[in-house]
Amino acid sequence: MVEQNSQQLDNIFRALADPTRREMLRSLTEGEQRVSDLAEPFAMSLAGASKHIKVLESAGLVRRSVRGRTHWCELDASHLAEVHEWLSYYKRFWNRSLEALEALLRSEDEAGASTDSKEDS
């Protein structure tokens, strides 16, 4: 496994560990938003929202710009590719579980079909 920028991954996972920040990221997939817009669904102060946004900025997931007195945020999804790459190494482990589940379900379907055909005759 290729060792990636460990500090960057730590920052990204730290940012994604909080449900408020994940929801802010999801909201930013719809386009650039003001800090006040990001804070509104959570009934939090602008200072509280700004703390969450700073964590997202340090992870490289959000870019903030200031126009006049308004702070605007936009999603920078390029660093999510690093997370995807890191998680891809482990994908084979959950794929094995899904393949085993699929085989189990198929065998149960076949057993049920066999029982049904015996009852019909």
Summarize the structure in words.
With 121 residues, this protein is mainly alpha-helical. The chain has a three-stranded antiparallel beta sheet. A hairpin with a 2-residue loop joins strand 2 and strand 3. Helix 1 packs antiparallel against helix 4 and helix 2 packs across helix 4.
Q: Reading side by side through the largest sheet, how are the strands ordered? A: 1-3-2
Mean pLDDT: 89
Number of helical regions: 5
Runs with pLDDT <50, length 5+? none
Biggest beta-sheet profile: 3 strands, antiparallel
Q: Which value, in Å, is the CA radius of gyration?
A: 23 Å
Fraction of residues in helix: 55-70%
Q: How many strands?
A: 3
Report, as a whole number of angstroms, the end-to-end distance: 57 Å
